[in-house]
Fold these 4 entries.
Entry 1:
Amino acid sequence: MEHSSVILIVDDNPEFIHMTGTLLTRNGYEVRVADSGRQALSLLDREIPDLILLDIRMPEMDGLAVCRQIRENSRCEDTAILFITGEQDRASLEEGFRLGAQDYILKPCQPSELLARIRTHLQIINQTRELKAAYREMDQFCHSVSHDLKSPIQVMHQLLELLSVILKESANPLPEDADEVMERLFHKCSQAEAMIMRLLDFSRMTQLPCRPVPVDPEKIIRNAYNDLVLLEEGRIIHLTIEKLPSVCGDPVLLSQLFTNILSNSLKFTRNKPEAEIRVTSQVKKGQTAITITDNGAGFDMAYADRLFSVFERLHSSSEFEGTGVGLTIVKRIMLRHGGDVSIQSVPDEGTSLTLYFP
């Protein structure tokens, strides 16, 4: 709620602190104050505010340096930062936004404008928290349902195997379509098991901690490929990896990410005489883009927006097996790294999937 929101004012001007603090207190906010950057950082060790009003121009430690350290504190990821400045220094403001500030206000502050901006950013914070809570509940529900369904499905599979043995040993003649019916039952049971396992994977990928470190993507890609290609006996597959730059990512999550992508490439090239998988990269505007291209079945780009939704499939199970969860996991992992993913494809020619790392 707005009236329980905590606002930290960081400014070396006592008069500004007094006037602004009084205004905010009268409007129902809890106010904390710091007259220097170091004092502000010290306060954050004890309490995390909902919003920080941060003066850019301060001696010893300016607002930009304070902002940088605040954004390095994972406990402050939901805290909004609004710069307070007496001049429109475009370079400083752009640097502030790059560091993670949300807005700025010019001195002298008009009370109505200040309150309106604070109210807007606090509403955004509350909505973001509610959305995160909803995602957590959804993930927990997904994990719970998947886990609860796993055991009954496995028991059904075992009972089917037992029934199959009993029927084969029976002295009574079986209907002509008995074998076909049993085969279909086994297939559907296996499909359900695979779907539940993928849901558990999806849930696990959203709950595992994300601890980014500098990693060599080529090493992760080759390890994932070497595991997957063991199941592709007799196929002609060419994997080409150009020199890739280091990226910052969680090794466990990235291993799952590249496993899902390569698994798709191997699956959708299965009908080609020779499979071609190429991994390239380029760096632009501070982002590293890694692209995985194959010469597989491809798809119509008119349906591309469905690809990253759970259980969405663009090919029938009779063409290619799958559950429709793999790319959803890829998307979620990239978002957890502060990145994104895009895809381009041409039917019968292949697909290019690009990962964008910050």
Entry 2:
Amino acid sequence: MDLKQEVGNPTSIRITRIVKENRSCHTLYFDIPWSDCSIQPGQFIMVWIRGVDEIPMGICYHDDKEMAMTVKRVGKATEALQALQPGDYVGVRGPFGNGFTLNCKNPLLIGGGIGMAPLRYLTQPLLHVGSNVTLLVAAKTESELLLYDFENRASNNFKLKIATDDGSRGFETLATELADSLLKKNDFDRIYACGPELMMAGLLTLALDYGIPLEASLERYMKCGCGICGTCAMDPRGLMVCVDGPVFSDEQLQNIDEFGSYTRDSTGQRRPL
């Protein structure tokens, strides 16, 4: 076994540019870290901030020259990432986990809050292969929406829907309620979701009701990212978010007892969602 490859080929990356998306989220663009880099939408990398911590981060953008991750300020590590400037370096390793599948023609993508990040990347290859993409972007209020450049996208096979809890932008409704309305009116063949887990639990119920396959990206506390520490294992089967996920199918989600109910903190204690 190649230990270096097993733990994700540790290296360093240079931040090339930073975009402030909203009041709490910044997108950091950086040079491609590996010469043979192939990161699938939904996979993640572990990011090490010297003297602070190492945390998992999803990829929100990827082309031939650069990649990007969107960082929401929630603690010391993310605050340190947002304090970086172009030209600064951080350590990375990966990629890890399973990504989204791309075998669909009429997908519905639903991103809640920071959950829009991996769906932004997923939208790229789906449009490239000619899928008819409907993207539902949701947040509590307009200032928390992550719209990236989708507002200005002109495409016959792309539709943008916006939902905010307070009605400050788009429909005044929950993501699940707008999704239900869209599912009644359209012939979708797959649902992709990322965001608050209670939202995704509601979307799973809808997917089962409508008989449409669903793939959802989950988040759990993790330390290693490669299946060694077990801190991201979920009840009752011990599926690990870092290696079995972070993207799970509707069939898998139905057999995860804690999905939509609770998560665990750094000590392993249950914490209600």
Entry 3:
Amino acid sequence: MRSIILTLFLFKVSFSSSTTDNDPTRTIESGVVIGTSTSIASSPFGVQQFLGIPYAAPPVRFKPPQNPVPWSTPYNASTYRPACIQQFNYPEEHRTRIIEWLNTPGPPAGESEDCLNLNVYTPISGEQAKAVLFWIHGGVFSFGSGSLPLYDGSSFAANHDVVVVTINYRLNIFGFPGSTALPETERNIALLDQRLALDWVQRNIAAFGGDPKRVTIFGESAGAGSVDALITSPPDPVHFRAAILHSGQKTFNPKSSDSASSWTKIVTATDCPQEEPAALECIRGKPASRLKDIIEKAALPFDAILDDSTLSKTPRRNRLESAKNPSLIARVPVMMGTNANEGSMYVIGQNDTQAFLNTALRVLYPGGAPQELVQKVLDAYPLGEPGLKTERDRMDRILTDVLAQCPISIVAEDSVGVNISTWRYYFDASFPSSELFPGSGAYHSAEIEMVFGTFDRKGATDAQLEVSKRMQKAWADFAKNPEKGPGWGMVPEVGVFGGGVRAGERNLGKAVFALAGEDLDRRCKLWESLYRK
């Protein structure tokens, strides 16, 4: 995977210096944009790329986004523009590992507060009013960018005649300032950025061959949480007709946002006045590099607050009551799923499940986890069962269930229970070109390169090529006809990609099949009390 990403990075840089008379040109609301064209080896169609288009004016720190300022001369959209300010927390070993695994190579144009831009990938031929897939990246609301080569939409667009849009949005303290001087409805700035980008698509995507009435939003991890927030706290009007959630949701959130606490610590660290609004104005005047240094070294968390505007205080109730009151949520067809080893990257170096549980459960039990609960968990995940050969396997499985699979299964059940067309997938494969480390399995985010087609094709196995082909088709089929679905039955059925294929194996027969959700979720009853409130 790393080699293909580096190749793509160099490919983009080669376009950065100038444009030619033959480059594709589009006229949008803000003015003329000039992109580039390229061919895709796996597709008979070429792709036009329009990169780094501003969907908002240069942002004012800690203020909601505004529409872009029109330009009078053609805008060079042949190269990526800066990502938003990133946060990779210390200690150094942790920071280095996350950067290597999830951000290498990093954003091609660096990072800046002036980062509210998006990228459009559109096929050169095919139908004119194409389905649109609008990607919201993950990164725990701390890091990430729509410009990462992992999210290059060229292969996806060319192979399936769809338009792919990837976006930046403000992150960490810049996306979730915890100042009480700000109205609650202006503290989830990151979510407001996403909504303005989605609004931009409605106004401009037709210029790129996309149909604004056929938009599917999709995202992974924090991006999937953002998609869920758009569903359960929908904008008016709703600017999408379908949604896909990869390994994340915002219906169940184990803990509330720490942004206010983090804000207080930043105010103290910068010697700003403790009182508001003086603290807010003081922080506004500090260099971004100084704030970045503070939040990374102190490992400060940031997340959305429940403002009942961009993030509902009652998302589950809204979904469950939406059959009687449809305006509570966006009642659109949904597909959601998880990977088999969501927890693998978080249990590196650990080999004591009981000690791990005692530490992990302190979030729910500050005075110490009841030992009968710890023993109950250990009994539910016995060593020696298929897939649980080692202590690390067991901890990985526990984290996968608690953080991803079990909450997603309940959201899916709730959704289909109120007559929303709902599908579910499960990704269970790993390949030599994409392993983070030996035994990483189908780790958190591993499916993304399969959907976007950005894995290393030179080292790809036949199974890898086949799984990616089937995943791209399923995602595209869903976007083109959401009510028909991705190609397998609705919940409780689950479409499985990979079927347990592991690095070094060749098994085309396990590319995709379906199983019953109850077989996949058999341990989730143990964790129900965390979610069913």
Entry 4:
Amino acid sequence: MDTRKTAPPLKIFSAFFRLGLTAFGGPAMVAYIRRLVVLDKEWVTEDSFKKGIALCQTIPGATAMQAAAYAGLRAGGPWGAVAAYVAFGLPAFVLMVTLSSIYVQVHDLPTVISLFSGLQVIVIALIANATISFGRRYLKMKQDIFLVTGSAIFLGLGGNPIIAILSSGALGLLLYRRHSLECEEKKAATASTKSWEMMRPALFLLLLAGIFLSVLFILRPDLFSLAVLMMKIDFFAFGGGYASVPLLFHEVVKVHHWLSNQALIDGIALGQVTPGPIVITATFVGYLLAGFPGAVVGTVSIFTPSLFLLLLIVPFFDRLQHSIFLQRALRGVLISFVGLLLAVTIRFGLAVHWTPISMLISACAFAALWKKINILWVVLVGAVISAMLL
């Protein structure tokens, strides 16, 4: 997994910042990252990039953000990873803070209410489409229906989605033990000294996270609670950014009552008109709770665990990806998210006031997303129509 060329962190930051300005479409941005680092800059080989994407799809977090960090790691080492990660997400953060500030000032105006009434039903179409995409990708066996149904009912009854995720991982070890997997189990060699040396950046990041949490605990207990919650969400968001939605719903709406159903949907909608992954909704949540400091804490916290896991696992991934036990557990975890997303789609749908026009807008948005029309255009066109008709 060697790179063709190396680059200083500043150059990596500049390249990924420019890319981040147009990073609409979530996971679809992986193709643009590949074009940048494999074809244009020649920082990463094709084979290395493919292995990196396999890693990014295995660990929790937004896939496109993880891909940027992995490419930066291969191009410029640990500091290159940080540079790419921060630069790729920075434009989305700046725009989301701006939109959140405007939202706080004008969200109760009649025109804005009409606008967000339309955006809310578009978000429901978006999550429904993500649910179907998850299902088409991961549902292959009869046992899968058991995990999907169980996860959906459990969350629908108010259960903690993290319990559903962990239980599904454990059940995956049992349910899929007789079925062949894409990879064969291989004996893992003892970790080399070089591998342990490569773990130092991850351990350093862990130390910084500990200091960050300690300072918040002493100075701002409210922000400490926000940080811990967002880190927990990111740590369990397997399968990409959309996997964070059921976790956000449970923690932010059901447990802590920080936001209403409608407000969280509004935040998700705003996230779709910003570049970057759907987890940028954490910026919106943080801003509504504690202004700009809350936005910073929410954003840093939602992205830190996945970067830590990436830096931690890269040295050992060649061995881990051949573990048949890991593959079984991971399959169970990913399938549980189909049920969790289904439950959230239903809960959001019940929370929205439906009219014939809003139903039509939602149906058209779903059809457009199904045809793979860019999310940005779906949201923008839907917003204009909503402002005029609702």
